[in-house]
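Annex B. Sample input.
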Amino acid sequence: MAVAYERIADDLRKAIRAGELGPGDQLPAESRLVETYRRSAPTVRRALDVLQAEGLIEKQHGRGTFVRRPRTPAVRTNLRHQWEKGRAREPLAERARTGATEHDTGLKAGDLVFHAAYRTIDADEDLAAAFRLPEGTALLERTYRTRYAAESPPFNLVTSYLVHDLIAPNPDILDEAKEPWPGGSQSQLHSVGIELDRIEERVTARPPTPEEAEELELPPGTSVLVLRKTSIDTRDRVVDVSDVILPGDRTEMLFTTPLERW
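Annex B, continued. Sample output.
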């Protein structure tokens, strides 16, 4: 038999799923819910905590509790890499028309807000091993945030690394003001004569750090997917290493593997 807080949570959950409380609607104040259900404030708070953990509601400091607006989903497929490679040599106008986030979400370029920040760093032990280069090798570190203009959290948290000496022949690649670069990283690499041969992706899952949970606006209990993407060129050099933090409440990973016919 359901206890009191579960009955309250179930009642509010049904109202949300039936559309009686829509996305963005404010729930009654806790004091009002206490009166309505004739239960204690701790019982009401526990019911609300259950709904928050399910991602149905969100508490906004100083404002109240609201029905959570569903985030725009993103489907990330491994076929996107060949799509990006095919675009790398297309005319500028065609490359500028759309990008990887639009590909994953179905949104248009005008729907998105993009931010990039660059800095030069020395490779630490982890990155040196990933690039198969000595520690201290100069790398260009790039952080990217892309969000839907109608939403506040980004789709993911991206940190990408390029070997500084390999991209230095094209100074534009070192300039964050040139972002977003039409055609993305594969087009940037193509501009200095680098063609990718393959991309390796390793995906794990874990709880988010407090900073990640705050930036991605994750409901309590939501995990993140951690993607390490390693790009290897036709000379068997690691030319790009990217770490991507993907929110578990809006990301679908889709892997399609073409098989050779007998």
